[in-house]
Amino acid sequence: MTQYHAEKHHGIPTATVRYRLSNKFKNKGRTGPFPVLTDREEIEIVYWLQQMERKGFPISRNCLISKVSSFLEAHPRPNPFRDNIPGRRWVKCFMKRHPQISFRTPEGVTSASAKVSEHNIREWFKTVSEYLAENELSDVLNDPSRVFNGDESGFCINPIPKRVIATKGNKNVSIVEPANSKQNITVLFSFAADGTVVPPDVILPYKRLRKDIIQSFPGHWGLGCSDAGWMDTKNFVLYIQKVFHPALLRRNVKLPIIYFVDGHKSHTAFEAADVCAKLGIILIALIPNATRILQPADVGIFRPLKNSWSQVVDTWKSKHKSEFVTIVNFGSLLDKAMKAALKQSTIQNAFRVCGLYPFDADSVDYTKCIAKNQKLMESTVDILVQPGEYIDDSHENTNMATGNQQGAREKESQTLGFDDSLTSMILIPVSAIEELIEIIGEAKLDQFKNQNYVPVTKEDEALLHVYSNIISRYSIPQDAATLVREQSCSTNSKDIPVVARDELQETANRDELQETANATYENGFVDDNSDAGNITTLPTLVDITNNCENAAKRKCEFSDIFDLPATPKRNKKHRNYKHSSTVVLTAHERMQELLANEKQKQDAENQKRLNVQKRLERKREKEAEIENKKRAAVARAVERLEKKKLCEEIRKAKKLERENKKQTKKIVKVGGKKTKLLV
Q1: Which of 22, 26, 25 is closest to 393 using CA atoms?
Q2: Which of 328, 343, 368 is the endpoint of a domain?
Q3: CA–CA dist 504, 23 (Å, integer)
Q4: Quick check: is 440 in a domain?
């Protein structure tokens, strides 16, 4: 049924239907059962999900269900869930109620890369700009044909498709894998900022190349060999000499040129820097662990190239039944994939979003930086403020549930310490308004305070609108309790929420009215004609403060379950930052760096030798001491043994003497008298 027929059938005016369907109508209601969580709690969960995403720990579906289940166990309430565990349907409805979040595929980032901050990247841009300005090479950055980026990537010879077409319900779907299905070929690509592609260099895991393999690759490509099939210094130097530099000469590119590479040891070796310096190529190493942000090849070129490679391989397999891709036909297929994927606009856009051409640090997508600058973290504090008429609070007043559900929700809100004025909040940093006032300036603010001021330009009109609806509407209360949202859910005396001035005036009027009512009741009478007769109990400033404190206490309980991890910070002891390497890898700078490293190594070796000598001396001293102790112990043992023998001999002599005396004297009794007889 169309809208027109529905209006005629039910007898509803067209203007009423249009008004109800427009954004002006606030009390639209909500279909379906009433949500288990309050709107404020769901807003808190959405904020937590966004913060976890920003810190590099996005939440999966099962993790969200587990957290909500733990919260329901800590705050029991009637719910249709089994064992307080929400199902997939609840997650689907939750995502539908909050369209600002959705399921996304995350990008894997190493812990070292997650610790690179915006400050580190801007410092790198500053260092490169200063070096080029000192050496009068800034004009190179203004020519896109003289700005290059090079990087390696691995290509699987026979990629296995993730999804195939098979019989519905069949659980045993198999695919035959060739013997080299896990083999990857390393290819070095170089791209210019104007969208041109330099012939690549293919590194094969062979000692020698067969004739049929060499003939299968295009003639202007580079071919190299290594034991593991990876890039090394020897192959990189050969690529610069025999492929990259000749390609520049064929295109009549003005030298010198800038070649951005990553910090791999094959790129930063002295041999590579020396060859590049002689050929007019300035090697510049990107900041470590930031290639996913600054390298055009990784940001916007390799992904379409890999997709094109998979499509080319699938097409080739469809035409060659039961055959697999080998190294012999790898070059021709990769050439087709490059022609299909490497478009000029794609390469230009990749350089632009990385800030390499035009060379601008502001063009970089800093949202990829998981780590934040420590100063920025300390100066920006997220707080909860009530914006008044700008928040659509109508859904709170709509009758969308049964009486029992409504009562349970009100009871839960009271239990958690919520005030009705705190149910609709938005996040705004205090520093944002302060910076806004500084940007506008005192002169403009004085003009905006004049009621007769008329804006001349659209910019002035926009600033006047910002002043009227943000700056002039809000002030910082000094005596009211604050509800501050921080990552650790702790309060800080410097972090004060922004509250509407109209609300402060209304609170003050309520306090005066409450005092009048209390004085009237204390006198024992109420004038029927006075306004105090119609007064009900109004919240005082103490009540508002208590409500805010209860809400802050409830916030900490909420954060015990929906907690946030620490923001990653760069570890200065990491191996990539322990010794700061030269950003611009010319031969001179590289030589100075190598000499400094060599000196450090020599000093370390000398220190090791001294430590070894000291350890040997201490070992000899300990051994001599132990030997002396052993000798002293042996001497004491010999002395004790000699004393023992001497005592034994003395004892034997005395015993023998006693026996001799016994033998010489015998007492005999004769006739009742004792007589001594000698033997």
Answers
A1: 26
A2: 368
A3: 29
A4: yes
Q: What is the length of the chain?
A: 679
- Do 530 and 612 share a domain, yes or no? no
In this prediction, residue 393 has a pLDDT band, given cuts at 50, 70 and 90, of very low
Q: Which residue has the tokens 């769901």?
A: 42
The average pLDDT across 157-179 equals: 87
Count of C-beta atoms within a 10 Å radius of residue 646: 10
For residues 555-574, average pLDDT: 64
Based on the domain organization, do 325 and 425 belong to the same domain?
no
Query: Which CATH number covers residue 297?
Result: 3.30.420.10
In-domain check, residue 41: no
Backbone angles phi, psi at 224, to 5 degrees: -140, 165
For residues 314 and 424, membership in a common domain is answered with no
H helices, E strands: number in the chain: 25, 12
- Give domain status of residue 443, yes or no: yes
What are 31's two structure tokens?
A: 């279909």
Helix 430-440 crosses helix 442-449 at what angle (to 10 degrees)? 90
557 with 641, same domain: the answer is no
Please check whether residues 513 and 654 belong to one and the same domain.
Answer: no
539 has a pLDDT exceeding 80? no
Beta strands in 407-489 (DSSP E): 426-429, 474-475
Q: Are 233 and 242 in contact (CB under 8 A)?
A: no
462-498 tens-digit pLDDT:
888 777 777 776 544 433 333 333 333 333 333 334 4
Q: Is there a contact between 504 and 477 (Cβ–Cβ < 8 Å)? A: yes
CA atoms within a 13 Å half-sphere pointing along the CA-CB vector of 275: 19
Characterize 353-392 residue by residue with b for buried, 16 or more Cβ atoms within 10 angstroms of its Cβ, and e for exposed. bbbbbebebeebeeebbbbbeeeeeeeebebbbbbbeeee
Is residue 549 over pLDDT 60?
A: no
Amino acid at 463: L
CB 288 within 8 A of CB 580: no
**pTM greater than 0.70:** no
- For 336-467, list the strands marked E by DSSP: 382-385, 426-429
Alpha carbon distance 143, 586 (integer Å): 20
Residue 386 sits in the same domain as residue 350: no
Number of folded domains that form the chain: 4
Question: Are the C-beta atoms of 428 and 383 separated by less than 8 Å?
Answer: yes
* DSSP characters over 142-205: G-GGGEEEEEEEEEESSPPPS-----TT-S----PPPTTTT-EEEEEEEEETTS-EEEEEEEES
Instruction: Among 368, 394, 425, give the residue marking a domain's end.
Output: 368
- The reply to whether 359 and 464 lie within a common domain is no
Backbone angles phi, psi at 625, to 5 degrees: -65, -45
Q: Is residue 76 part of a domain?
A: no
Pairing assessment for the beta strands 222-225 and 281-285 based on DSSP bridges? unpaired
DSSP states of 641-663 as a string?
HHHHHHHHHHHHHHHHHHHHHHH
Contacts 24+ apart (CB under 8 A), 314-323: 314/161
Rounded to an integer, what distance in angstroms lies between the CA atom of residue 337 and that of residue 203? 18
Q: What is the pLDDT of residues 516-530, one digit of tens each?
A: 444 433 333 333 333
Measured CA to CA in angstroms, residue 155 lies from 143, 174, 325, 327, 330 at distances of 32, 23, 12, 11, 10
What's the domain range around 495? Answer: 382-561
Please indicate, yes or no, whether residues 509 and 638 belong to a single structural domain of this protein: no
Q: Pull the structure tokens for residue 523.
A: 């006198």
To the nearest 10 degrees (0 to 180), the angle between helices 61-74 and 88-97 is 90
Q: How far apart are CA 504 and CA 506, in angstroms?
A: 5
